[in-house]
Specification:
Elements lengths: L28 E2 L5 E2 L2 E10 L7 E6 L2 E7 L8 E9 L2 E11 L2 E4 L3 E5 L9 E4 L5 E2 L3 E9 L5 E8 L2 E6 L4 E6 L4 E11 L4 E11 L8 E3 L7 E5 L3 E6 L3 E6 L5 E6 L2 E6 L3 E9 L4 E9 L13 E5 L4 H8 L12 E7 L14 H11 L3 E7 L8 H8 L2 H22 L3 E6 L3 H13 L8 E4 L4 E7 H17 L3 E8 L16 H5 L1 H21 L9 E4 L6 H4 L14 H18 L3 E6 L32 H6 L1 E4 L3 H8 L8 E4 L2 E4 L3 H6 L2 E6 L19 H12 L22 E6 L5 E3 L6 E8 L5 E8 L2 E3 L2 E2 L5 E6 L5 E11 L4 E11 L21 E4 L2 E5 L17 E6 L8
Parallel strand pairs: 2-9, 11-17, 18-20, 19-25, 26-27, 26-38, 27-28, 28-29, 29-32, 32-33, 33-34, 34-38, 40-47
Antiparallel strand pairs: 1-3, 3-6, 4-5, 4-7, 7-8, 7-9, 10-12, 12-15, 13-14, 13-16, 16-17, 20-23, 21-24, 22-23, 24-25, 30-31, 35-37, 36-37, 39-41, 41-45, 42-43, 42-46, 44-45, 46-47, 48-49, 49-50
Length: 897
């Protein structure tokens, strides 16, 4: 199916008439759907036409047959959307939307969805976790992870060859193993589900002499870690369980190695990350992340040069793309890989699209030697607008879900990353909508006056403002950093947010109609006002690292395929791109923060002279159809020579009011030089490229839809010499330096933790208290209003107290901290003390849609878990043939807590 990365398109502040254009409507796009579902009843299909000639009616086709339809009121070239609920039988369904007006129809790309045949027992999954290094005489823990999508795991059996090692019936599944003889042993693990289905996995365990044998770390290809690490200028030795014949590194400059049969010695050259492609004597290739720490063991930050990144999914074709590690221009050298975590919090969006979307992306990224970035985008849900965002930030239920969701997201990543670096770009378009539309709809766009339900420590009606919401999001992320996450984060702002300077084709083209000087002044005004609005909204609070800006989520000639490129709003010439960097530089100067460019299109200008190293021929023109559209982004940033076919294109792309010495014209041949250095000079430290929606030109995949043009240009950037930066960003977590409020983090119990005790007994409460610019003078605590005494433990800013709960129930731990400057902070943790027999599940309701498999409910005293989508009376747990599996009496164990 077509991959849809996000539902957003920038709504530029451009004055449009209500003229009816004599052409078919813009192309509609079906919103993201899962590739497979078990139950197709009541499936909601949504579509959007983000920009273009409007339609008057539409219909949804399923395998060519109309299943629903609707009418629309045309409104110039503004966005249109529609949705309907359909019932899909088991089988494969090709869904397509047709949007029509009096001049014709436009069809969306086909979305393919497969509906299952109903309740059949699925085989469980089991994975043998990384086998530890073992020496003779050691007793070690061998563990496995197992799950069952339509039931539960009853046992996991472990064996060494034919020798049984033991059975574990509850997670985490493990057995102890005592190593007695040097050798290589096969460890087998079998998982059995509640209906008797089994799955198995195996790996090799290497046992060495007690003195260390070969004096190295043993690694098995069947159970490789995601990443190994070596310090700069140090050498580490690894002994594999098969002979190694060849190693290729995604980045050739960070390390060097020597291969001696099964032994590999790796020496760190410079701090950084890379992915290794390791070939064995059997012809197999394996992939392993390599991190080179600083000589003192400190983790590296981002590369000390302007980094390049790409959007990516964990699809088969995308992963194959990243596995293609070579030594020439067909290599896939890269610094960052990013993905969208969107669609709405909890069951509304990304969490319902599959298992561990964020965690799996982190796994693959670290394995490939790439820093994972996440575009966290959940103030909107399935669609986005000013109205939608306003409704959500004023909904107590929605925002409670939001903060639960962002916590789940970060913990999912940290479970994999374990302190390794990851990045977050926050809430594209959100602040842009309020800066642009607040005065019209609310009488003000002041982020400190627009009411929300989110306050500093509570979520309730009118508890806060946009400022307190943004600040709390930042505080939530910063809290994770203080608890061990290594996060580099910032907010996205918009080119179109400041309406007074927008003009008919956006602020970056004001030099076309106002002239160079006056147009440039308008650009500076827009950039300054947009950045200051973000600052006033709180985007720089709690140590935010950067500000992000995009261009447009769709290639210019897919958005508007005009014969004259000047008529395509987003088809920039060199002057417009220089205006873009002028805008970016103003953001940088206004905020004193580095800039991350995001969602830059990967299309290029046709007529290129570049020869493909994949075919030996010049790259063919992009035909300006979905997934193959021209844009000038790649041409500008990485440089290219191209021939134009007519005087209109020649005049447009040769224009040089900026007096850029990187632009040269010889007849009908135009050369734009690389502008990575100019981007760096404007404050840019990272440039992230990629398709914004499924019909955008795609720079990754097997093959990418641009025929590898973009990735070849990126490889030339790395091979010809990167643009250095003055510092290594993300190496150290920023701290507040002046007028800092004290901070308290809950260590035990954790925030919202459920603690189960057979009998009420004493427990240790632990909190971490820090003041970045001074000291904590007083630290007081209460539990349900009763004072308790906290004492410093003498290590890591940790304070503790012994406390015995008087009864089972819910408790509120409130910590008040006062620092030496008289600044205070209040921190609240609501947790529960329950007996093992207490059920904490919500009762099943026919009014609730249980869209995510694995959700648990209470029904008539028992706990149930759904195997697939469930809704309505017919899917009641009372229906033994339905989606619910009875887990037994509802108690602490079956509640999953």
């Amino acid at each position: 199916m077509n991959r849809i990365f996000c539902y957003c398109y920038l709504l530029i502040a451009i004055s449009l008439s209500s003229q009816v254009f004599a052409s078919p409507p813009g192309v509609p796009q079906i919103a993201w759907l899962p590739e497979t579902i078990e139950n197709g009843n009541g499936l909601t299909v949504e579509w959007n036409m983000w920009w273009g000639v409007n339609g008057s009616d539409w219909e949804l086709l399923d395998n060519g047959n109309k299943v629903c339809e609707g009418t629309l009121t045309p409104n110039g070239e503004n966005a249109q959307k529609g949705s309907c609920s359909v019932d899909l039988n088991s089988g494969v369904h090709n869904l397509q939307v047709s949007l029509c007006n009096s001049d014709g129809c436009s069809e969306s790309a086909v979305s393919v969805i497969t509906v299952g045949t109903g309740p059949s027992n699925k085989v469980p999954t089991v994975k043998l976790n990384q086998l530890p290094t073992v020496k003779v005489g050691d007793t070690v823990l061998i563990s496995a992870t197992a799950s069952d999508s339509d039931g539960s795991i009853t046992k996991v059996s472990f064996a060494e060859g034919a020798n049984n090692l033991g059975i574990d019936t509850s997670a985490p599944y493990s057995v102890q193993y005592e190593a007695s003889v040097v050798g290589t042993y096969t460890i087998n693990v079998v998982a059995t589900d509640n209906l008797g289905a089994t799955a198995s996995a195996s790996g090799e365990l290497v046992v060495t002499e007690a003195d260390g044998g070969s004096n190295g770390t043993n690694l098995s290809f069947e159970a490789l870690p995601l990443q190994i690490n070596v310090n700069e200028s140090a050498t580490a030795t690894y002994i594999f369980n098969q002979p190694v014949t060849k190693i290729i590194s995604r980045k050739s400059n960070v390390a060097q190695w020597e291969i001696d049969n099964k032994t590999v010695r790796i020496t760190g050259k410079i701090p950084g990350r890379t992915g290794l492609k390791i070939s064995t004597a059997t012809g197999e290739n394996y992939y392993l992340g390599l991190r080179i720490n600083h000589s003192d063991g400190a983790l590296p930050g981002l590369p000390k040069y302007l980094s390049i990144g790409s959007v990516s999914e964990d699809s088969v074709t995308d992963l194959e793309f990243w596995r293609d590690i070579d030594t020439d221009l067909t290599n896939k050298n890269m610094d960052i890989r990013y993905i969208y975590i969107n669609g709405g919090p909890m069951e509304r969006g990304w969490q319902s699209w599959g298992t561990r979307r964020a965690g799996k992306f982190a796994e693959e990224s670290i394995r490939f030697g790439l820093v994972p970035f996440f575009v966290y985008y959940n103030i909107p849900d399935g669609g986005e607008s000013f109205t939608t965002d306003l409704e959500h930030i004023r909904s107590v239920d929605y925002m409670n879900d939001y903060f639960q969701d962002i916590d789940i997201f970060m913990e999912q990543v940290q479970e994999v990353a374990q302190g390794e670096l990851y990045g977050i770009i926050l809430e594209p378009d959100f602040l842009g909508y309020f800066q642009q539309n607040g005065v019209l709809h609310l009488g003000t766009n002041d982020p400190t006056k627009i009411k929300t339900v989110v306050g500093k420590n509570k979520i309730e009606e009118n508890a806060g403002t946009i400022y307190s919401l943004v600040k709390r999001i930042n505080a939530t992320i910063d809290n994770k950093r203080r608890l061990g996450h290594k996060i580099f984060f910032g907010w996205q702002l918009n080119l179109w947010a400041y309406a007074p300077t927008s003009g008919n084709q956006g602020v970056l083209r004001r030099t076309d109609d106002l002239g160079w000087v006056q147009g440039r002044n308008a650009i500076v005004e827009s950039a300054r006002e947009t950045t200051q609005y973000g600052i006033d909204a709180g985007i720089l609070t709690h140590g935010a690292d950067f500000i992000s800006i995009d261009k447009y989520g769709l290639d210019a000639m897919i958005h508007q395929n005009k014969e004259n490129p000047a008529d395509s709003t987003w088809f920039f010439n060199n002057d417009h791109w220089m205006n873009y960097l002028h805008f970016v530089n103003t953001m940088h100067e206004t905020s004193a923060k580095p800039i991350v460019l995001w969602q830059l299109p990967v299309g290029h200008i046709n007529g290129t002279h570049e020869t493909s190293v994949y075919t030996g021929q010049r790259f063919q023109d992009l035909n300006n159809t979905p997934t193959k559209g021209e844009d000038s982004s790649t041409t500008f940033f990485f440089g290219d020579s191209f021939t134009v076919g007519n005087s209109v294109r020649l005049d447009y792309f040769a224009q040089n009011q900026a007096q850029d010495n990187q632009l040269n014209v010889a007849g009908n041949k135009i050369t734009w030089g690389s502008h990575i250095q100019e981007a760096k000079d404007a404050g840019v430290i990272v440039a992230l490229f990629g398709a914004g929606v499924g019909i955008s030109t795609d720079g990754v995949g097997s093959p990418p839809t641009d025929d590898y043009f973009w990735i070849q240009k990126v490889q030339s950037y790395y091979q010809n010499g990167v643009v250095p930066l003055e510092k290594e960003y993300a190496k150290e977590t920023p701290k507040c330096e002046l007028n800092c409020e004290p901070w308290v983090g809950f260590v035990s119990p954790l925030q919202s933790e459920v603690v189960r005790q057979n009998e009420l007994s004493s427990m240790t409460l632990e909190v971490k208290a820090v003041d970045d610019d001074g000291t904590i003078n007083t630290l007081s605590a209460t539990i349900n209003g009763q004072s308790i005494s906290l004492s410093a433990t003498g290590e890591n800013d940790l304070y503790s107290a012994s406390w015995t709960p008087p009864a089972y129930g819910n408790y509120t731990l409130k910590i008040s901290a006062l620092d030496n400057d008289g600044l205070s902070g209040e921190f609240i943790n609501e947790f529960s003390i329950l007996s093992p027999d207490t059920c904490t599940l919500e009762p099943w309701s026919a009014d609730v849609i249980y869209s995510i498999p694995g959700q648990r409910v209470e029904f008539e005293g028992d706990a149930y878990e759904n195997k697939w989508y469930a809704s309505g009376v017919n899917d009641s747990p009372a229906n033994s043939e339905g989606p619910w599996v009875n887990l037994g009496t509802c108690n602490g164990s079956t509640s999953g807590l």
